[in-house]
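Example 3.2
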Amino acid sequence: MAIALPHSPRSTLPAMLGMPGLPWLTAALHTPFDVMRAQHAQAVRAGLLANSILESREFERRVDALERLCLGPLARSV
């Protein structure tokens, strides 16, 4: 019997740990990082930050690194 590997280890982490409330918890843990991304986007739209692809890429890299540092295996990945 072959076992299909999931596309993302995050999607099956709650099932592997046997914790039914973990999806809710991980969504709550991701919220501050989503807020940071939304605020950055609003600042760009308002003209407070440069509308630069390079700057946005660097911002996303920094937020992603912070998310991985803070959340460890619960952090999102592409």
